[in-house]
Structures are given as structure tokens and as C-alpha cells.
Amino acid sequence: MQFLRDFRPAAFAIAPWTAAILTLAAGVMLLASGATPSEPVRFMRLIQVTPVYLIEAAHFLSSILGLALVLLSFGLRARLDAAWYATLGALLLAASLALLKGFNWEETAALIALAVILVPFHGAFPRSSNLTRMEITPGWLFSAFCAVVGAGLLGLWTFQHSDYADRPWWRVMADADAERAVRAWAGAAIVLFAFGLWRLVSSAATPPVVGESDPEFERVRAILAKAEVAEPGSNLALLGDKRFLFSASGESFLMFAVRGRAWVALGSPVGLREERSELLWRFRELADSHAARPGIHGLNADDLPEIVDLGFAIQKVGETAAVPLETFSMEGRKRGAARRNWRKLGEVGAGFEVVQGEAVAALMPTLQAISDEWLAHHAGGEKGFSMGGFWPRYVREFPVAVVRAEGRVVAFATIWTTASRSAFSMDLMRYANDAPNNIMDYLFVELIEWGREQGYEAFEFGIAPLAGLDDRPLAPMMSRVGRLLFERGEEIYNFRGVRRYKDKYDPLWQPRYCAAPHKWSIPWLMADVGLLSSGGVSGLSKRPKKAEEAPQAVEA
Q1: Is residue 553 predicted with pLDDT exceeding 50?
Q2: Given a cut of 60, is residue 348 above it in pLDDT?
Q3: Where are the beta strands (DSSP E) in 374-507?
Q4: Is the pTM of this model over 0.70?
Q5: How far is CA 534 from CA 216, 217, 429, 529, in A?
Q6: CA dist 145 to 66, 68, 365, Å?
Q7: Nearest to 438, CA basis, from 403, 407, 388, 464
Q8: Cα-flanking dihedrals φ and ψ of residue 266, to 5°?
Q9: Taking Cα atoms as reference points, which of 301, 295, 300, 415 lies closest to residue 355?
Q10: What is the pLDDT of residues 54-105, one digit of tens each?
Q11: Sheet containing 243-246: order of strands
Q12: Residue 310: which of 516, 523, 512 has the closest Cα?
């Protein structure tokens, strides 16, 4: 008995995969049985005591159940509770039909034995998602398609090489037994086709978006206002397009968005440091229970120990630039151009100011006009998810740095702050058509000085996508492809220009990562991030303007 108790955890660990393989085999067996001839002697005895319509129905339904078992095997592999119940029901029903379609007692025995094996392992299938949320990928559907086609080909071969070998195949198809097999096979094929179409439009369960009118939104503001651990980008929680997972104490949150079957978290949890691991695990478990595909974008090096504990694969996606304010100086050759631009604009009367609260609301029409002018010359429109956009409600959440020339506002930037004052950054950076040249250099330098006066430790310039990836022979394929895009992909995005512009301020470059349960799912995660940020395929397909205005690319 002690041995059985010790063996129990291992048995439950392998139960999902074992059950999936056995159920898949049972489904293929039923598909093959439905597509091949019945055993003549048994069939003749059965037809003497059973109405023909019952035999026909049993034969047809048995093949449909075979396909159902093939598909349910995917749910068992994913540890779905509903798949366990459905598999037991399908096995028992198929066992009964096996007797009616040709007194195939061997099939009945095998199906009942499998059901008996599954019964003690209910605890190995803890996911509460229902079958309509079961994730079946194109690869799984292709496997089921191969099983159905294979059963059909086996049936054709069997009919041609049994008692019908001396008859042409078109005559064989006219035989009642052959008709029954073809009907069963065609029914399974039609069901699979319909199921595949349905899966193309279905999606996983989605928690509600927390918006401005939601009381949870105030909780988000409160956590950001006192967060022990937060980055400037954590303020994207206030966009109003996120879902949130809160810690048990209510002092931390993890934000994420949903696109189809993908759940994409943005950055690490915000709030208390000791609650970070708990929230990451809860996020993965919640996505798992909803049959969703989890991923995390925008992680830094400090987050990696917890991500490794989750069992996620990790991929570097770029580097962020941070300027330590204590040691920053405008002196030196590297910052010569920025220094000259800053002085030149100061000499012609440019002025800098940071406004907050009601002052931002009073300036909103002016800021809106500048934003509209800026957008008219930059492709892609407003962004979301991983980038901020100009929405008055969102802009009012933050201090706004404005630059005036000749007494009027010609440029502005919204400022992301952090409660710990560890770092601050800019979100939106926009300027009017008639703004002086190099206005962004002036804005950056003034903002850096403002941040130093406010007691911030660093100023973040944002991410340089695909920067810092290696192209070595043994480097991961994703890194090598990313490096190629960084060096040759100027038609897609000004990757190298963004990196060069930020280098003028001699920042510290820090890696950024994304993470997903499997290495192969990372490309899907990156595609989901791009589509979420751009508002779908239509937004992503708009080519950005290729210009020398590298500062605006920092917004990405």
C-alpha cells in the first residue's frame, strides 16, 4: 500500500498524456472499424435479431464517436475536466454500439477497459474549462484529418483485397456493407470539416476589460500611486484596454490583454515585490484553466528567475535605454549635437514647463490640435496595449511637459512617473508642423533636468526593438532572424536609427525579454503583441514614415 501511495503522484503526472494516447488509439480503432467490412458470420447472426435501421445507425454513430475520441484526446492532454467526463461517456456509448454494428465484442471489451482505467484518474484533469473552450491547434486538426483519411484509405484497400477482390471498386461501393462503411467515413469527414470551421471563429474565454467606469480602475490607480515595484511603462495600465489580475492582498496587479486564444501579459506584476511570483503563477494557472495560450512581453532581467520557475521559454526582443541622472552631463563629444540644439532653441526663446491636473485639462484643445497635426504625417494611427495613444482621458492621468515658442505650445510629451522615483519616462511625444527644428532634443534635455530636480534616479528612453541580438552560428534561430531584421529591415521600421538616436545620450542599455510556455509559441506571442498594439492587421500593415525624425520612434 505504501508503494501505491508513493507511486500515485507519478501516475497522476503521466495520466494526461497516457489517457490522450490511449483515447486517440481508441478513436482511430473506431474510425478504421467503421470504414472496413463487417465480419460476415457475426453480422448474419446479428441481423437475424436486430432491426437493420439500428445496425445502420450504430455503424454511423460509431464512426462519429471515433472522431470525437480523436478530438477529445487533445482535451485530455490539456487536462480538461470536461474532456474526462465526455471521454468516459463516449467510450461507454461506443462500447454499446460496437455490439450493435456487428457484434464486435473485442472493441467493446477494449473500450470498457479504457473507461475503467480512466475512472481513478479524475484528479489528473483539474482544468475547469468547458469543451467549447478546448484549444485545438491547426496541427491537432491536421492529425485528426490524417486519421480520418487513413481510415478511408484502409477501408478502400480492405474492400478491394477481401472477398471483393475480383470486382472493380465502383461495383464494390454499391454493396450494402460498402455503402454502410462509406456513409460512416463520410459522416466523420463532414463532422471534422464542420468542427474545423467552427474552431477558426471560436475563441477562449475572456475576462472583462477594466475601464474608466469600473471600480477596479480606481484600485489600479491606487496601486500605481504607491507601488514598491513598478516601471514607467506600468502606467499603460491606465489606457483602459487591459484586463487585470489582482493579488490576494489587493496591493499588486498583473495587466494583460486577450487576442483570440492568446493571453498576453505586459511586463511583470506591479506593486509589492514579494507578490510577484504569486501573480505570475496565478496568471499561468488562470490561462490554463481557460484553455488559453499565455505569454508575457516586456520583461527585464530581474524578472527572469520567476519566469524560469514557471517553465517558460525566454527570448530577448530588444534593449531599453536608461540614463542615470546622478552622473548625466551635457558635456562631451558624444552629446555635442544635442547640446548645440538645446542651446540654440534656448537662445531663440523656447520655454519648457511641466503642467498637471486642471492645467492639463485647460491645454487639452491645444494638445489635441498638435497631436492631430503630428498623426497626419505619421502612418499607423493611434496605438494601444504596449504604447500610449492620445485620448484626453488618458492624457489627463499624467504630468505633461510642454515646449513653447513665441508664447504658444509647439510640442508636448506626457510623462510616466513611478511612486518609488526609481525612473521616469515619456509616453506620447508630439510636435506641431511649424515647431522649430530639433525640438525633441530640447525637450529631452529639459526633461532630464526636471527629473533630476524631482529626485528621480534615471530617465528611460524606451525600447530599441531587436537591438542587442546575436547572430552567432549557435545563437537561437529567433535571435538570428531578429538580428537580420535589425540590420536589413529599414523598410519595415527604423530599427538602427532608433538605436543611434538614443545612443547620443550615452545611456545604459538593458535587455528586454518575452516569455511563453514553449519556444515555438514565441513567434505567435510577438505577432499578438504587434497586432494588439496596432489595433489589428489593418493597423500593423500600415508602413511607418521613413524619415530622419528618429525621436518620434522612441514612442514605439
Answers
A1: no
A2: yes
A3: 400-405, 408-416, 424-431, 458-465
A4: no
A5: 25, 23, 17, 8
A6: 12, 12, 58
A7: 403
A8: -110, 110
A9: 415
A10: 666 676 677 778 877 887 887 788 777 888 888 898 888 888 887 776 667 7
A11: 243-246, 253-259, 262-266, 293-299, 508-516, 313-324, 458-465, 424-431, 408-416, 400-405, 351-355
A12: 516
Could you tell me the pLDDT band of residue 364, with boundaries at 50, 70 and 90?
very high
Helix (H, G, I), strand (E, B) or coil at 398: coil
Per-residue pLDDT band for 369 (boundaries 50, 70, 90) equals: very high
Residue with cell 472583462: 208
Q: How far apart are CA 61 and CA 153, in angstroms?
A: 19
C-alpha span between 301 and 459 (Å, rounded): 18
In three-state secondary structure terms, 377 is: coil
238 Cβ contact partners less than 8 Å away, ≥ 6 residues apart:
217, 220, 221, 224, 394, 397
Return all residues near 235 (Cβ < 8 A) that are at least 6 apart: 224, 397, 398, 416, 417, 427
Q: What is the pLDDT of residues 405-445, one digit of tens each?
A: 888 899 999 999 999 999 999 998 898 888 888 888 888 88
Give the span between the Cα atoms of 222 and 225, in whole angstroms: 5
Alpha-carbon dihedral sign for residues 489, 333, 554, 303: positive
